[in-house]
Amino acid sequence: MRQELAAVLERMPGEQRQSAGGRDFWAGHWYGHEVVAVLSRIGKVAAATTATALIERFGVNRILFTGVAGGIGAGLRVGDVVVASSFVQHDMDASPLFPRHEVPLYGRARFDTDPALSAALAAAARAVLAQLGSALGADAAAAFALQAPRLHRGLIASGDRFVATVLESAALRQALPDVLAVEMEGAAVAQVCRDYGVPFAALRTISDRADESAHMDFMRFIDQVASRYSAAILETYFQNL
Ligand code: ADE
Predict the structure, then answer these.
(1) Residues 4, 80, 183, 235: which is the catalytic one?
(2) Based on the structure, what is the number of domains in the chain?
(3) What pLDDT, in 10s, does the model give residues 77-118?
(4) Full-model pTM
(5) For atom 1 of ligand 1, which residue has the closest CA?
(6) 17 domain-assigned
(7) Ligand 1 neighbour 183 (Cβ under 6 A)
(8) Region label for 32, one of left (φ > 0), alpha (ψ between -120 and 50) or beta (otherwise)
(9) Which of 222, 216, 210, 213 is nearest to 72 (CA)?
(10) CATH at residue 227
């Protein structure tokens, strides 16, 4: 989201803007590492295009994705953070030609993230979550009644729908019993990264429970919580590289 990118760019002084495919890419440095920051845009096609441009045009050799997601798994609360171990497209269904969720011609439904990159991102997330107040400010933590947010690792489902009913999130849980969270891009980026052999890791802050109240605090949450988490976690990640 735009607020997350703004928080990242504040930490990348002197970044240069380059446009491609209707997107602005920001090339700069973070703790001495070359970084290109960009909004993925929303939905699987937009995110796949952005990932392809990062790889083809900017030659990136790894991709880190941050954002928000709806909590689906039973133990996921607003404010918790998920580092993905794999992604699935919950709206992919070429049955009866292929099993439900399988991406045709890949022989698989699930696309794994890179274990080493994900472990480094999870370590950074753990360090930031341990000091909730300093990453967020006590006001934001209190406004969302965030207490001891937890880090989860596992499956994230992506699809071109904002999931905003109990009925739909229950159906997702039934179709994919181990799914932790739902969003709209990660599986597309995971597929592109597999095509190109580029290591990929993804982190999502839970902004809602994918139910009837999902949309209400979404924007405020991104401003006050998710963007601060993302920037602080990436900062710790680059510091520790
Ligand atoms: N991103 C954040 N919350 C979401 C939801 N409920 N559905 C899809 N994407 C989301």
Answers:
(1) 4
(2) 1
(3) 988 999 999 999 999 999 999 999 999 999 999 999 999 999
(4) 0.94
(5) 69
(6) no
(7) yes
(8) left
(9) 210
(10) 3.40.50.1580
